[in-house]
Amino acid sequence: xxxxPRRRRPGVTVLVRLLIYVLAAIFFFVxxxxxxxxxxxxxxxxxxxxxxxxxxxxxxxxxxxxxNIVHRYRRDYPRLRIDLRGGxxxxxxxDLIDARAHAIFFARPPSSGEQGDFTRVTxxxxxxxxxxxxxxxxxxxxxxxxTVVSLETLRPVASGRAGxxxxxxxxxxxxxxxxxxxxxxxxxDAPSAPPPGVVFLKDDDTVLTAVLSDVxxxxxxxxxxxRKSLSExxxxxxxxxxxxxxxPVTADNLTLSTSDYPLxxxxxxxxxxxxxxxxxxxxxxxxxxxxxxxxxxxxYLPAKIISREVFxxxxxxxx
Length: 319
Description:
With about 325 residues, the chain is of the alpha/beta class. The protein has helices spanning about 10-35, 35-45, 65-75, 90-95, 110-120, 150-160, 175-185, 205-215, 230-235, 255, 275-285, 290-295, and strands at about 55, 80-85, 105, 125-140, 150, 170, 200, 220, 235, 240, 265-270, 300. The radius of gyration is 27 Å and the shape is globular.
């Protein structure tokens, strides 16, 4: 007497088919949506103590943008404790040398001398990348006679050869803005002592105060360093004429993105080339397409939007 073959139970067949459909749907979703599983896993384990501490210095170079970037980075990595510290370019570089910071914001690249000092002290080097574009604003009191100033006029004033008695107020050279201003004018780096007619002051706020009290003078400030608008200060920005016969241009994101405004400047972010993981991850983030899009959502202009993926690694690669 033969044994009848065992028949599959309908319920098991349906479950197997359902499982196959679910797996296929998940597979399709993952590859179509490009889910960031590293970030999902990080967020899923966000309860508990922080993984580590990230120290970012140089916030005074761009206080509002630095706060914004760190705030958005903290949202992506809630278990990471972040300490945002002040200081301008020179102080931020010193903090990196002394291992008091994992990453820094600054207004100019380190000089060859600073790189040499860094290598001699740490055995490492600084790597840096532009992350945002801003404006060097030439400001004056509202009752100043001129509304336009040319680069041709600014060059002798900045080099101390104007002989007109007009004062130019500039933030402390340690901020990095003076270096960027001279570079845009095509002038060589100046010595630490100010040229005749150039007055170095503590910071951008002090420059704005001095311009208001010294009618006829002009000053330069960084759009990154402003904590409130020029109209709130009661000063105005002069339009810049790049050359003879050209139209004067005022600074905004459009004229900066088209390079029509000639006195532009970068905000840089940097870390040690072979430093700790937190610094490398942060620099990779701010130079990545995601980080650049985050800057694009602020009033500031990202340095570039990169059309390729950037993966987190110990040593950031230049985009």
